Description:
By secondary structure, the chain is of the alpha/beta class.
Amino acid sequence: MTFSGKVYALLAGLALAATPAAAAWIPAGLPDADGGDGYLCRRAFLTEEEGARVLGDALQAFPDDGRWCDYAAHVRQRVLEAMGFSPLPDRPELSTVVHSRRTHNGYSVENVAVETLPGYWMTGNLYRPADPRADGAAVLHLHGHTPGPDGAGGWSRHGRFREEYQYSAATLARMGAVVLSVDMAGYGDQLKLVGAEAHRTPASMALQFWNGLRAIDFLADLREVDPARIAVAGFSGGATQGLLLTALDERVAAQASVAMVSAHFFGGCPCESGLPVHRSADHFASNPVFAAMAAPRPLLLVSVGGDWTKNTPQVEYPFVRGIYRRMEAADRAGNIHLPDEGHDFGPSKRQAVYAFLGAALELDAEAVFNEAGEWTEAGVTLEAPPAMRVFNEEHPAPEGAVGDPDAALARLLLTQTTSIP
């Protein structure tokens, strides 16, 4: 059986939990499931007009906070079932690898691996402020899809090693936050362990969600972090991860989502739409619904004119703000729309994230202002990818680390199936 086939075999055996009829909701006129694979909603599953209509119908279906909260709880249950995590498994004490601290202007960087499943290591970099507070804030930093390291630009254009992600993580650290910048499944250091194939399967959605939970655990356990001040920031596919994590984990105190939330586009990678999280026999949730499930916590949507977020000021944001208004938190949801920009994590998008997280987490924004009072990233040192790698000849992968995608899947399925009655 193929890697993805094993995932569907497991999911086929899961029974959906009963739900009160009042909490169930399916909008009228939905198209058939994409490709006939159960309830999958891939890529532009809806037209722009259909996506807008569904959100309008949702506002009518949930006219108050009580009805909305009931539906949000129902969606959380269905999403967890779709990923094989119902109920959530126990999360044992973490094993970690932290090494090679480098000190820069106002911050430091270390290479980090966290054993999120037996033998499976989530990898990334930990950025710390030079003078951390005892009750400081933290940010889980999630990159989007990028070319592999064999393409033009090599490792410097791949994943968390790209300059835009280094600029963002380091600047937030200089503002006072501890920042954990992690690889997507099958990216970065994980390429040498489980390979790129681990990202190209539906299991990557469940794996990345589980990694996100364990990343929050890791940050919450740091002595300089206040567990009540942990935010998530993501771009594109990383924003998709952030949407689900924030919707499902109430420990996330704030979320910044850049160039992803769309009423009609559901994500084109299996890590975004490879499992039936958006739809079942009694629920439907496009990404704006997941975004609204953050309410009443602070939320920023950054949208642009050059991708599927082009309608956000007229479609997605009014829906999200409407839900926040029902939760008496309309002032906690914001949208920065850049009509002349495209799908990237460029300076203007990063500055929007800095301003939002600076306010939401009470960071020191003036630490990264220039003499004219403008945002600057001039204090950031861009590192070469070899310095940022977690596993190398000097620091080999721990003994027993999984070495292929099937082994990673086996560990994931063991964690999932132990929690299923």
